TrEMBL record:
Its cofactor is Zn(2+). A zinc finger (C4-type) spans 19-37. This is Large ribosomal subunit protein eL37. Component of the large ribosomal subunit. The ribosome is a large ribonucleoprotein complex responsible for the synthesis of proteins in the cell. Binds to the 23S rRNA. It comes from Methanospirillum lacunae. InterPro entries: Ribosomal_eL37 (IPR001569), Ribosomal_eL37/eL43 (IPR011331), Ribosomal_eL37_CS (IPR018267), Ribosomal_zn-bd (IPR011332). Zn(2+) binds at residues 19, 22, 34, 37. It holds the Pfam family Ribosomal_L37e. It comes from the Archaea. GO terms for cellular component: ribonucleoprotein complex; ribosome. Keywords: Metal-binding, Ribonucleoprotein, Ribosomal protein, RNA-binding, rRNA-binding, Zinc, Zinc-finger.
Length: 60
């Protein structure tokens, strides 16, 4: 059971690279889909209404 130092050097492979469409580091190399904008899966930009939580308008 040797944990600690041997486990530290296990980050050599990249899963996400820079997306061509949005420029963020969220394009999955193997799945060929951007998790931020949806490039590779959809021609439209990925977006959901639950992401932007708008505050309710105050009614007096």
């Amino acid at each position: 059971m040797s944990k600690g130092t041997p486990s530290r050097g296990k980050r050599q492979t990249q899963t996400h690279i820079t997306c061509r469409r949005c420029g963020k580091m969220s394009y999955h190399k193997r799945h060929k889909i951007c998790s931020s904008c949806g490039f590779g899966r959809s021609p439209r930009l990925r977006g959901y209404r639950w992401i932007n939580k708008r505050p309710k308008e105050a009614t007096h």
